Amino acid sequence: DESGYVEIVSALEARIAEQELQINDLKKELEETKLQLLEQAFTHEVHSPQPPQIPEGSKPEIEIPKAGHGRAFMTKSVKFFAKIVGGVATIEFPKGAQKQDSEEVPSLLREMTKNSFLTHQFRELDQAKLQKQELENEIQNHVEKIRQQSEVQIKALQDSYTPLLEKEQATISDLIKSIGKELNGAIICENDSEKAYIVDHFDQDTLQISLQQVLDKNGIALKEPKSIQREFQSLGPVHAMHRNEIDQFMQTLQEKMITVQYQIVVVDGEEKMCCPVYITPNFISLQDYEIRFNKNEEKITEIVNKEDGNVKFEAIHVSEDCGLVRDTIVEVFTAEVNPHILNIIHLHIDDMKEEIPVEAVYIMDSQSADDYGDWIRDARGIDLRYKILVRSGKIEAVLYNTGQTTEKLHFIERRLKVGDYVQIHENAVAQVTLIPYGLLARDWSAKNAELPDIFNHLSPSSYCMKRHVEDTPGFINVKLILENGDTVENPREMSYPICQCGELGDFEKIQLMSLFEYIETKKKGNIEETLRILQGMTEDYRHSRYTDKKEFLDQISKLTQKAREGLANDEGLRPLWGELIQNADRIVRTLATEIRFG
């Protein structure tokens, strides 16, 4: 592949660079050798004897030495002697120069060797450059081939995706048309708030959407719809209301308002101020709104959402005599006297007024809370503020008189009866023994029925710590039967506020019943064990198996008394052990007589 070619070229370039360095070193050494040869040649020319001058036209006289005439030569590494005999020149080497060191090469031969190596290196360099050029040409051809193939593949890919893209574009266009069709006239709501909009128009080309905002972020209806123009993408997370829900939404739109109950408070003896005492819905953020009060008309004229403008509202002027603290739940503690009379024992109401006028009314099956919107004064001449409506032996509604309107309050009914087990504190369980009368609600059949007087004569062991109606203090009698996980030996009765008597859960009731069964079983086993011991003592008496008559009398007397108490609480054991108790009594009397009269 292309990366392999690149590696080969890189290796060749490194090799060529190395060979070029070697060639440069050889060139440098060759130049130095040439200079040495030139110096030797120059020296030989200067010191050699000059040949005799032969006049022109005369014949040279050749002197042939007897023993031969020669001349000595020496190079950098070789010494030799040249002698000419006649027409023949003989070269001889000195004895010391005939044997050459194997490591020493004649200068001329070395130069020739160097020239041959240099030629070889140049040849390899040319071959490497040629190979490099061939590889570069091959790489270029391969790259060009890949480029052409890529262009073909890209074009094929584009051609293959073009129908799909066109199809997707058509799908998107259809979706936009479908969205536009669904949005026109629809109601869309923001996912992260209660804002709601009616869609006036959706432009399918520019994706611009025209809206009419009808609810603010708290779900309160705007006094007048607010026109908004936005890009569809900028709407954020929204959902469209189902077509079947739009009619219901439009019908209840006018009910999505803020209700303010307020009182007029005089400040500094003359200036009148608006004092809101209750605002619904409870979940709205009051910091988002501004309440505008007209002092001349003494009423609230506008409530403005600081972001979205005026909202719908209802303002109720509450009488200054009303003291109910809103956002509270009325707790009603009851006990059924009979199917026609309900005993309202205790009543928790967070009301700031000193007196809390309350009336209990038993309504008929055909009536409803709407039939009791009229308010009168009670026997003391005080305006009634609360009505507790009872139907079929249970609380139906708790009504509140604001001075102008009647409102239903949230309530919880808690019911007890004599015999119930309750938890009076963390480690104690008691049983209800008496429930005095409080506020009675009677139906028409029991209107004149006489009831026995039931009063609580015990001193209270605790008191209700909440705001409650004084006429219903809520004290009931309970008997402590279990404390710190053990039964109480001598249960004591006490007066306790009913609101501090916690109802046991199903699991706790099962545990309590299991404990009672275990205690009874254990108690029965203890009684039977006592009876067996007593039976053994009667046998001892018959056979005179005792030493101290007085001590024996004391023991049998205690066992007889204990056995008698056990049988009194267990009717099942009386037929089996009644005769034994009689025999034991006779023995006690006999022994007492014998001890007394000696």
Secondary structure tally, helices: 7
Give the termini distance in whole angstroms.
134 Å
Mean pLDDT equals: 78
The general outline is: flat
Strand content: 25-35%
Largest sheet: 6 strands, antiparallel
Helix content class: 25-40%
Q: Which class of secondary structure composition applies to the elements? A: alpha+beta
The whole-angstrom Rg is 63 Å
Report the count of strand segments. 29
Helix and strand topology:
Elements: H1 2-47, E1 69-74, E2 79-85, E3 88-92, H2 95-98, H3 107-183, E4 187-190, E5 196-202, E6 208-215, E7 221-231, E8 238-240, H4 243-252, E9 258-267, E10 271-280, E11 289-294, E12 299-305, E13 309-310, E14 313-317, E15 330-338, E16 341-348, E17 358-362, E18 386-391, E19 394-401, E20 406-409, E21 411-415, E22 421-425, E23 428-434, E24 439-442, E25 468-473, E26 475-483, E27 486-487, E28 493-497, E29 502-503, H5 506-542, H6 549-568, H7 574-597
Parallel strand pairs: 9-14, 15-21, 17-18
Antiparallel strand pairs: 1-2, 2-3, 4-5, 4-8, 5-6, 6-7, 9-10, 11-12, 12-13, 15-16, 16-24, 16-25, 18-19, 19-20, 22-23, 22-29, 23-26, 26-27, 26-28
Helix pairs in contact: 1-3, 5-6, 5-7, 6-7
